[in-house]
Every structure is written in structure tokens, then in C-alpha cells.
Amino acid sequence: MDLVVAYLRDRALRRERRYRDPLDPINISDENLIRYYRFPRCEILRLCEDLDPFLRRRTRRSHAVPTHTQVLVALRFYASGTFQHVLGDTVGLTQASVSRIIRDVTQILSERARFEIKMPTGDSGYPLEAFLMTPLGNPSIPGEVRYNKSHTKTRVVVEQTFGVLKSKFRCLHRSGGSLQYDPSKCGKIVNACFLLHNYCEMRRVPPPHDMVDDDGEIDNPAEAVAEAGTGQAVRANIVRNWFT
């Protein structure tokens, strides 16, 4: 009986699917890498090296997905918003595997974004928070007027950045589906894209040639709510120290 069990187990292992990785960033031009993944070869390899300790599968099984494939699958999703089963068909992975990859990479990048990204300004549709400054509704002194003018100038830059961000990472754009996921997952994907956009800017990665115009949506996600005391204190301190 033991011999039968051993034989069946050995036969099952021989039939086990072997994952043959079709993605090789070394043999793709930088132009196409930027087009499909938004980063050139050197930056993709840097990102793979950085994320490898977190993404490497602790298994010797032949169908473990390499780190660079996980990174490229996630980057392709961010860049295009392509359905997961379509991505899976392209690289020889199941939809479930693609979903896990996007989840894992997004989680890591989103956690980093919490420490590396600051959200400085929002318009009147956003709540005032200690980390998010909004304009004063009725400025009554010169310092408050100057604060509002400075806030408006900064807000223009932020809005332009949102347009570039949605065009570069099409999963955020209406043409890419605008993220048909639950709010928690959407927030993590947005954070991951913010972080990757910052990496592009810091490392002067040229924009892809397939950039599209902004979709004209108004970034005003919430009605104004009662302003928190901590936010009021931070804003008052900014007005007092920088604009008075």
C-alpha cells in the first residue's frame, strides 16, 4: 500500500505544472518598457531588487512566480487597467495568481507610500485635517488672504499632477476602468500609483508616448465636513508663522 501511495504521489509531482516565465525585461527595449510598464530597464531592476525580500516565494516548487514577473504584472496593471484574466493570459498565469500578485505588490507599495508621501492640500470639498490643508471659507485678515492665494497656486499644481497621474497609470483613468474594486483596495492602488509617480519624477523617467488627456472628472470626492480642531490649529499656525 505504501508503494502505491508513493507511486501516485510521484506521478502527480511529475504532472505538476511548470511555470515558464515569458517576461524578460533584459530583452525588451527601454522605449517599450516605458510604454507598457512606465519604467526603463534599470529602474525595473532596481524595483525588483528592492521588493525581492518581500515577494520571493519561500518554496522550491517549480511553479513559483519570480519576483520580476510579479513586479512587471503589477506595473502592467497600473499602467493599463487591463482586466486580470487578460493579464494572466498574456503571461501564462491564472486570474487568481494575477490577483494575488497585484494584491501583494500593491500592499507593499501602499505601506511605503504612507511614510514617503504627504498630501498637502485639498479644495473645499475635502475635510480639514492636520495633514491636509484646505482654504479658509471667509478670510478676515491679510495673512488669511495670502494663505488662500498661496493655497490656490499649490492646488493648481496638485490638480495638474492628478491629470498626469491618471494618464500615466491608466488604471486610475476612466479609459482604464477607474478601479472597479472595493474602496479599501482602491485606496491602496492609488497610493501605490502615487509612490510610483514620485519615483518616475525623482529619477527623471520620461513620460510614455501614449499619454492621454485628463478625463475631465472633478477631483472633489467628499462634501465638506466639520473641521477638526487639530486641523484648525495646524492651519492657524501656518497662517501665523508664514503669512502674517
TrEMBL record:
**Quick one: where is this thing mainly located?**
cytoplasm
Q: Which UniProt keywords apply?
A: Cytoplasm, Hydrolase, Metal-binding, Nuclease, Nucleus
Source organism lineage?
Eukaryota, Metazoa, Ecdysozoa, Arthropoda, Crustacea
**A cellular component annotation (GO) from this entry:** cytoplasm
Family that this chain belongs to: Belongs to the HARBI1 family.
Report the superkingdom from the record: Eukaryota
Q: Which cofactor does it need?
A: a divalent metal cation
Q: Which gene encodes it?
A: Harbi1-L4
Location in or out of the cell: Cytoplasm; Nucleus
Q: What does this protein do?
A: Transposase-derived protein that may have nuclease activity. Does not have transposase activity.
**The protein's name in its UniProt record:** Putative nuclease HARBI1
Q: Which residues form the DDE Tnp4 domain?
A: 115-198
Q: Name one GO molecular function term.
A: metal ion binding
Give the residue range of the signal peptide: none
Q: Which Pfam families match?
A: DDE_Tnp_4
